[in-house]
User: Fold these one by one.
Assistant:
Number 1:
Amino acid sequence: MFGKRDDIDRMFGTMGLFKNQMNRLFDDFENGRTGFAKSHSRPRVNFYDDGVNMLVFCELPGMNEDEINIKIHNNLLTIKGERKTNVSEGYAILRQERNASPFSRSFTLPVEIDTEQTTATLKNGMLALKLVKARAEKPRKIVVQAA
Amino acid sequence: MNEKNTVTAQESPEIFKSGKTNAPDVDIWINDEEILLVADLPGVAKEDIAINIENNTLTLEGGFSADLHGTLQRQEFEPFDHRRIFTLPKGLDVEKTTAEFKQGVLYLHLPKSSSVVPCQIKITGT
């Protein structure tokens, strides 16, 4: 039924997207949490596609550029790191929701990526990864010519 | 469904009014001199943070301004503004509150008023 493993990945990805949206219908009262909440204990990631690029956004508040490790190998994107909670000595904890455990997240990319052109920027605790699609994957316009 | 997620607060101020906001994760630390509130505000610029203290109520708001565009493929967070409200205890010197913002994390120092800082009283007499 499915020719390629990619197709299956993509189908599950779409189903997951739909499932998340459905789950969220009932979550509004809870007023969702951000970043590394204890409940999910890993940074959250959004993927976008603008035709030419895959854009990956990852919430990494309080992290430095050199604490984040990004790797792409055979369509597998991995974002790794560890956040340190740098609160000075002598404080007692009243509430702790921000997580500081090491994390590693991996994603199978749906398209071929030109790794040479990949850029990553970190601004206000938001990591933005720009993955340029390989030439063959970019949309191409075909002009119809009169016979 | 997708369109809703690509709208930011700048384009549509009614997001705040509709109550579609994220509650940021916070750590609260305390010592003898102050209460330290640490909040994660990823995707928020320093200029878009508003901290208001009124009648022992602390309101923390941050406008989401990261530029997310394209067709959504996978979603784990929603690009909404951040907002969270706290009730402050008595005995804080709110006038002296200071705040710093580093890499998407807000550090809010709420000093205790001098009458609350513990001190030892010496007993005199014979």
Note: Chain B touches chain A through 44 residues (CB under 8 Å).
Number 2:
Amino acid sequence: MYSLDPAVKIIWTINIIMRTLFYTIFFAVLDFFVIPNFFSDWILPKGITTLLIFIFGVIVAAIYPYYYYKYWKFSVREDEVYIERGVLTRVKTTAPYLRIQHLDVVQSVLDRIYGLGKLVIYTAGTRGADVTIPGLPIEYAEQLRDRLKNVTPEDEV
Amino acid sequence: MTTPYEEYIEPRKLHPLTLVYRLFTNLPGLALTYYFVIVEGQSDQFGYLLFALIGLLILVPSVVLNYIFFNFQITPRELVIRSGVIAKRQRSIPLEKIQNVNINQNFIQRILGLVKVSIETAGDIQTEGALEFVSVQDANEISEIIKNYKFSLKKEKNKDSTDVSTDSIQDEADEQEKSNVLFELSWRNLIVYGMVRLRPLFLLFGFWLMGILSQFGIWENTIDKFVKDNQNYIESLDVFSITMLIIATVFVTIFLSWVFDILWTINEFFKFKLVNEDNKLVTSYGLLSKVKVTIPLRKLQQITILTNPLKEKLNFFTLTLQTAGFGQKSGSNQSVVPLAKFDELISLAQKIYSFTLPEKFIPISRKAIRRAFVRYLMTIIILIAPLVYFLPDLIWVATAIPLLYYAAYLRWLFRGYAINNEHLIVKQGFWLRKIIIIPLKKMQTLHLRETFFQRRLSLATIYFDNASGASTADAKIADIDKDDAYLIYDEIYDYFKHHIKK
């Protein structure tokens, strides 16, 4: 079983912080502009919701990537890709090569900065999109994609 | 005399009435602007009028141009569809790759004599096409040409491989002549089907109808006025008559929904027929919208046997098939036997696909009852708590908590699974009871999930992913013992691996 590239933790942290900022701004608008104007008898003190959401987001950003990384394991076996992941909800996934329809390597802006990429494995299945391996060094992701391409037969559903 | 084939060598246009149909169906999009112009438009009339005019100015030419620049032809090897006003698009579909030719007609299309022909192929979405719309005659001829082409191709292939098989070709030709009817829904059973479906969703229609009915007489549409006008009446009511009124309303609503469901069912499954044509199942049905669907058995992903408590009491069951989608399209769920007795249905199903039902299902973990109960309880608390906060009297709802436990128990009782002879068979549902037969070799990916709460009870759920599209939620074994889950997970995958490798 392999782990992902440790740099992916930084990417996850940045992602969570950005999302936290988004929600913080959203709730700040509610707290300071919408609620005082429309609900005069609101019970909670001004700004408390915003603060709580911000603190919650920061805590999640500090803790979650570490554990998510810790539990993210995958292995490229003889006939299938096997993945284990999840902190609260643990998921094990087996994706046989025979069922691979096509493969993509996807890179976000943050991925590019850290030289990482995601390998997305598409099957004909409905949960196909579930099979994504994030945080691989880009060369390795491309190498893996090419390797899997060669073992993928033309197969019918 | 020219054969139909030769007529299609030249590029052909769609049926001219397509224009009428498209203009007609595109109008609702503009209706909102017209509403403002005609109904509301007194002061700001000009702005809205301009808006509506611009809408029309864009709509009409685009429909007309699309029609003019669309044509199709059948060359000796391909069906070619050309479209696009500015960006031209040409789609060539090799005739041999065509899997199905589906013919569809809704109510308005039927009046206009228009038919939608959709071409489905085994490949990706790039090689699929639809002709919207051609005449009935054209539709029949097109499907005939494609059928003939495929038939001659098969003949050729057989000739190449062996000379001895001429007999079998003859047989095949005969077989194709007489397509054999597997199932027909009689008038009586059609009505019975409507009566026993009892779909909870239709209660919404009941409410909707009641809403419309209650609007009559109070068209002013303001509750204030209603209350003011009827104040004497409302004050004169006592608790008993209000209760009776509520009961009567509920009763009428349910009855209306039921009638609506029956009518809907009759419209949907009118003259239902299931035919076996050359290893493909073809169903045709419908009153206002006629549908003809081809189900390629090769793409079969799973079989579902459906019933509800009433249907089960009367020994009525429904058979549906889930097939793989084409390309990016998700799979389809087709009813092949709307209503039949259990034995009849099973023998029919086995003609379509061979399987055996297990004698006994393995129950899921008893801890699932507790889990479901807590989940139901949380849902109810979240829904009811704000109401109770404002109306403390509502606390009597709490007496329903034992009922929730009973519901959780029923959920557990009706769940079960079995793995036998290459199949995973799952049973579930209290109201909508399902038995789902899933061929293990159709597996795409396999997942095992343990949520935080499941881990505390050492439970797990296995998700079996196939290409059946719509019914992901079905192909799973929920809340079984963790150790069992691990074993079954390996068992399913080992079976798949060995079977497929051979």
Note: Confidence is low (pLDDT under 50) at residues 162-175 of chain B.
